Amino acid sequence: MIPLSLQIAAEPATPFVTRLRLRPNDHTGPNDHIGETDHTGEADALFVEDDDGGTLFAGREGLISIDGFAGHQLSGDVLLVDPGAGRAERLLRSGSAHNTLLVTERCDQLCVMCSQPPKKTHIDRFDHFEKACMLAEPGSVIGITGGEPTLYKPRLLDLIEAVLTERADLEFHVLTNGQHFDLADVPRLRAPLYRRVSWGIPLYSHVPATHDFIVGKQGAFDRLHDSFSALMQAGARIELRTVLTSTNLHDLPALSHYVAARLRFVESWSVMQLENIGFAKNRWSDLFVDHAADFTPISRAIDTSLLHGIAIRLFNFPRCTVPRAYWALAPASISDWKRKYPPPCRDCRERDLCSGFFEWHPDEQAGVRVTPL
Amino acid sequence: MTVSCRTAQPMKVRALDEGSLFVNDTGRFFLASDAFAQRLHDDALSQAETDELRLQGNIIDPDDDFSLHSHAYGIAERLGGANSLDYLILVPTLRCNLDCSYCQVSRAGVNQRGFDWSDETLGGVLRSIDELATDSIKIEFQGGEPTLRPDLLRTIIERCERFAHKQFVICTNLQNLSADVLSIFDRDDVYISTSLDGSIAMHRMQRTGPLTDAFLDNLSSLTARYGPGKISALPTLDPRAPADIDEIIDTFSAFGLTSIFLRPINFQGFARKRHKQSREQDEGWRSYYERFVRRIIERNWLDKSSVLEESYFSICLRRVFQPGADRHVDLRNPNPVGVDYVVIDYDGTVYPTDEARMLARSGVIDLSIGDVQTGWNTPERLALNEASTNQFDPSCTVCAYQPFCGRDLIDDLARYGRVDIERTETEFCRKHLHIFDFVFEPIYSQDPAVRYSLAMWLRLPAIPEQLGVRIS
C-alpha cells in the first residue's frame, strides 16, 4: 500500500499546507506554467537534503523533516502538515489520479456496507483543502468524499467555486448521498464552472424500501429523487453508483430499466463490487455476492443499459471474473494506493487494464478466484 | 391513435401483427396484447402492471416534480441538437471525368472552364472555416470530382489544423489515383466515400463503361492499402430493376465493405419529368428492401466473421433505442437547415443540403440560402426553418413513430413543390412508416439469427435477453 500519512517533525505551532519541491522555479515541476496562483512559490517547501532516516525540506514555515522517504519520492506532493501530531497527510500525491479529500466524517446515512463508517464529530479543514487544491498539478481531477460532504454544502460549494474560478484546468468529483440538494441550489449549480464537477451518487434499488434499508434511512429514496430533480434542472453531471450486495443483486435488471427510463440524465452508471472494510468487513458473508458464480443479473443490467445508451461500467470487478464480452466495461477502478494483485496475476495479460483487488480483500478469496488471462 | 388514462401519460399506438405498440413522447415503448390495451383504456390495470409501467417511464405523476422533469428530459433528448456549424459540404469543382447516366446536372465536362472555385470563393470558404466557433469539424468534399483539384483539398485540410477533432470525407469516383491524391488519402483523418453500384455489370452500365477496370483496380488497391473502416461505398440502384441481392452483398464483401446503404436513384430534372413513377418508391422497392435486410440477417448468422448491415436500417434502429446517438442529418427532428451544416457550391452559392443544390441545378426550384461572401443568415433560411419540425404536425403528433422519425422539408419541396402537404401523403412519411414497421418486427423476434444481427447493429457487446418490453 502507498502510505498517505507521513511521520514528520516541523517547527510551527499550527497545521499548514505546503507543496514539496526539489528546486525553486522548477520548470519541470507540475505547476509552473498553468493556473498558478502561487507565483512566488510561497507555499512551497524546497528540498534541502536526504539523510539516513529521511529527507529535509525548508519553506516559509521553517524546516520539515520527513521520516522514511527520499526527497524525490515526495516531490510535487501537497501536504497538510500537523506539527503537533508529528504527522503530515499527503493530500495530493504527485502523479496520482486518485487524490481524494476527506472533508468530514459525519454522515446522515448509515449504509449497511459503509467502507468509511461515520463519526459524530467534525473537524473543519476546508480552508486547508482549499489551499491545497490551489496547488494541485495541472489538469487534475480531485476527489471529495466523506462522511457526507454536503452536510457542509455552503462551504463545500464555496470551495469548489473558489478553486475552479482560480484554476480553469481542474475538475472535482464529489461523492455524496444526494440528500441535501433542492431547487434553491439550481441557479448556483447552473454556473458554467460546474461542468467541471461530477457528483457520484448512490442508488441501490428501484424499490424505495430496499434503497432505504441499505442506506439505513427512511425516506432516503424520495429525498434522493428531490435532489435528482434539482441536479437535473441544473444540468449537473451525475455518476450514478450502485454497490452490489446480496440485498440488491437481484434488483439490478429492473434497476437498469429504471435508469434507462427515468434517470437518463446521468452521465454514467457505475456498478460496484463490495469493499471488505468498514461495516462490510464484519458482514462480509451476509453481504458479498460472488458475481462470477452467477453473472446473469449483472449481464442483464449491462445489456439493458447499453441498449438504451446508458454508459454503464463495472468497478472493482477483476477482468478474469467477468465474461469476455464485458471486459471493456471493467476498468482499473481501484485507487492505486489501496489496490493489490494476488501472485497469480503476475503473468496476466490484462493486468494493467484490470481493477485488481482492494488491499483488504480476503486473500483466500482473491487467490482462489484469479485466472490469469 | 392516442390513448390516455388517468394514470399513464398519453401514449400513441400503432397496430402491429403481434399486438399494439404503445409509444410515449420520450420514445419509451412496449408491445401489448389487446386485453391489456383494453384494461389500460378502462383504467383497470393491476398494481403489478402499474408498477411495470412506472418502472418503464410510462407513468407520470403530475404532483411529482421528479417524474415530470425526468419525462421532460426524455422529450428534450429526442429533439435533435442542431447547434453550431461544424460540418461543411464543399464542392471545389463541378467538373468530372465520368459521365454517369443519371447525373445530368451535378457535373461539368472535365475540361470546361468556370466550374471551379475562384480565388474569391476559396477565400470565402477559408474565412468561413476560420470563423467556426467549435473545436471539431467535419468536411465532406463533393463534386463533380473533387480529386481533380488536390491543391484545393490540401489548402482546405491544412486550414483545419487548429481543430482538436477533424474528419475529412472525400467523395470520389476513384477513377484516377495520382501520387498527389494518394498522399492526401494517406492522412489518418481522411476517409474515402465512393460509389459501387451493386454489381460490376451495373456499375459498368450506369457509371464507368470502358473505364470500369481502372476503378476496380483502384478500389482493390485502396482497400488493401488501408484495411477496413477507411473506405465506404454506396450503391445507387435502379429501383425498377435492382440488382440481385446476393450479388450486391458479394460484390461489397469482396472489397471488405460491410455497410451497404441501399439508395434508389433519385431522379432529378429531365429524368424526373420523363419517369413520373420515379417520383416515389413503390411496393416493389419496399419489398426488395425487406428481402435485402432479411438476407443480410441470414448471412450474418451463417458467417460470423464479419457483420453486414444496411446503413439506413441501422440508423433507424438506433434512433429507436438511443436518442441523440446519431447525427444523420437526413433523419432527425427538428431538422433546421443552414445551422450545423451547409453546402458550399463551386460558385460560392450556399445550399442547405446536397439535394437542394441538385434541385437548383436542375431548374426545379432555387433553394439557395445565401453565398459564402455574404453569409446565409437570410430570410430564405428562416422561411425554410419555419417548417423544419414534425413536432406540431397534426399527423405526426398522433403517430407512434414521431419520437424516432424526422423531417426533411427539402424532400417535400423536391417532390411536391410545397412543405404543407398532408404528411401521410408524402413519400417521406410512407417510407418511414414502412421502415419503422419493419424495424419493430425484428425487435420482437425470437429468432436467434435476427437477435444476433440486431445486437451487432446496435453495437452491443452481447445479445440482450429482450430488446422490447412485451406486456400480455
From TrEMBL, chain A:
Biological source species: Novosphingobium guangzhouense
Pfam family, one: Radical_SAM
Keyword Metal-binding: yes
Keywords, sorted A to Z: Iron, Iron-sulfur, Metal-binding, S-adenosyl-L-methionine
GO molecular function ontology, one term from the record: catalytic activity
Protein name as catalogued: His-Xaa-Ser system radical SAM maturase HxsC
Cofactor names: [4Fe-4S] cluster
Domain Radical SAM core: 102-237
Keyword Iron: yes
UniProtKB/TrEMBL annotation, chain B:
Pfam families: Radical_SAM (PF04055)
Highest rank taxon of the organism: Bacteria
UniProtKB keywords: Iron, Iron-sulfur, Metal-binding, S-adenosyl-L-methionine
Keyword Iron-sulfur: yes
Cofactor(s) this protein cannot do without: [4Fe-4S] cluster
Gene3D superfamilies reported in the protein's UniProt record: Aldolase class I
Parts of the chain that traverse the membrane: none
An MF annotation (GO) of this entry: oxidoreductase activity
Domain Radical SAM core residues, every copy: 80-303
Identification of the protein by name: His-Xaa-Ser system radical SAM maturase HxsB
